[in-house]
Amino acid sequence: MMELIYSLPYNLLECPHLRLQKPSWLRMPSAMFMFAVTIVIYFLFTAGIIYDVIVEPPSVGQTTDASGHSKPVAFMPYRINGQYIMEGLAASFLFSMGGMGFVILDKSNSASVNKLSRLLFIFLGFSSILISFFLSRVFIGMKLPGYMS
């Protein structure tokens, strides 16, 4: 019965015979282009771009010190589900830097890399991962004071 309902429009209508060709300028994107697009999308999503569009938080916050002057703050303290725009961008940069460290470590394992470049890749990859990890811990410590002590 459902097949009859689905096939009814195709019995009444005839599809046109079109001779469509792919444009000559349209090509398969390169692997590095797709990698760059993936990294940019990852950066934007981990920055909280959807949260920023829906909630529209300020780019940075402000607090008043003991003398009554206002000073800018980059982290929204005591709110794990809230963020300022710059806070999300900084955290996303750290996450992306850690991920790129793993990519660099993978590139150091290639057979065509000479010994000096391999050592530089290993150093750069491990340092990117470690810097990203420890700065993320510092960010969490600033976000939730007393949580990781």
Given the C-alpha coordinates, what overall shape results?
flat
Helix content: 55-70%
Oligomeric state, counting identical vs distinct chains? single chain
Structural class: mainly alpha
Feature tags:
single chain; mainly alpha; two-stranded antiparallel sheet; 2 strands; flat
Give a description of the structure:
The chain is flat, with a radius of gyration of 25 Å. The model has no long low-confidence stretch (mean pLDDT 92). The chain has five helices and two strands, in the order αααββαα. It has a two-stranded antiparallel sheet. It has helices spanning 2-12, 31-46, 49-55, 85-107, 115-143, and strands spanning 61-64, 70-73. β1 and β2 form a beta hairpin. The chain has 149 residues and is mostly helical.
Give a topology summary.
Blueprint: H1 2-12, H2 31-46, H3 49-55, E1 61-64, E2 70-73, H4 85-107, H5 115-143
Antiparallel strand pairs: 1-2
Helix pairs in contact: 2-4, 4-5
Outline of the structure:
The chain has helices spanning 2-12, 31-46, 49-55, 85-107, 115-143, and strands at residues 61-64, 70-73.
